[in-house]
Automatic annotation (TrEMBL):
Keywords: Cell shape, Coiled coil. Belongs to the MreC family. It comes from Alcanivorax borkumensis (strain ATCC 700651 / DSM 11573 / NCIMB 13689 / SK2). GO terms for cellular component: plasma membrane. One of its GO terms (biological process) is regulation of cell shape. Residues 119-266 form the Rod shape-determining protein MreC beta-barrel core domain. The gene is mreC. Involved in formation and maintenance of cell shape. It holds the Pfam family MreC. This is Cell shape-determining protein MreC. Residues 73-103 form a coiled coil. InterPro entries: Cell/Rod_1 (IPR042177), Cell/Rod_MreC_2 (IPR042175), MreC (IPR007221), MreC_beta-barrel_core (IPR055342). It comes from the Bacteria.
Amino acid sequence: MVAPAKSSYRVIIALVLAVVMMVLDQRTPWAAPVRHVLGYLTAPIHYLAHLPVDSGEWLSEQTQSRGTLLDENRRLQRQALILEQKVQRLAVLEAENVRLRELLNSSADLDANVLVAEIIGVDPDPNRQEIVINKGTGDNVFRGQAVLDSQGLIGQVVDAGPLSSRVLLITDASHAMSVQVNRNGVRAVLAGVGQSSGLKLLYVPDTAGIQQGDLLVSTGLGQLYPRGYPVASVTSVNHQAGTPFAHITARPTAQLDRASHVLLVQPTQAPQARPTPAEADNGQ
């Protein structure tokens, strides 16, 4: 029984001393140096005690910060992709506007009424040089109508539907037309070779005086095309020994493989449509 009594006395004494020290700490300045020394000595213990909590908070902040940065990075990447697409689209629209301005400026120089049409299709058959435009009989398009771009003649309407029409290009192997050299007036027949950049002059005498770079324009003969439109420029002139005719090639002035819009010419006199190769075969 003695030991428990001593323990109780010790607890009571400790409590009394604690209360006395608290009162003295509040009422007198003598305990301040002691408190400072004890605080200095116990600072490492407090630091080590709070280290797990502080580390956890730091890791949590870093994780949240990294996640925020990743989200921001993904958002900026999406914005950059959208802006790049818009820039590309603007470049396409700018180039298209330039072509349309050239086309409209060229239409102002024509002595005939014109209709602007958009190319909506290209014949996939490599043996056919044809395009499809978005204008038809509902827009007064007719078979045999001449088609051109800002640089020259493209071809002729061979089939006009209610809403669209097919145009046979001057480079088609079945196409031929009358042209003349703008420099000296020499006339010849210009035929397609089945390639978008290929044309040839048929049965031109060696003495015709045609030169590389000569501009070939439409003559209007046969009422297939109106007179005086640029058609092609001569790219080569070869004189072959033993033959009376020169081998002459030309390139279309029109941008057949790059045009997006064309002009349909309404001449003062409706042209007599040339029969297509299929119709010519049926008539034989």
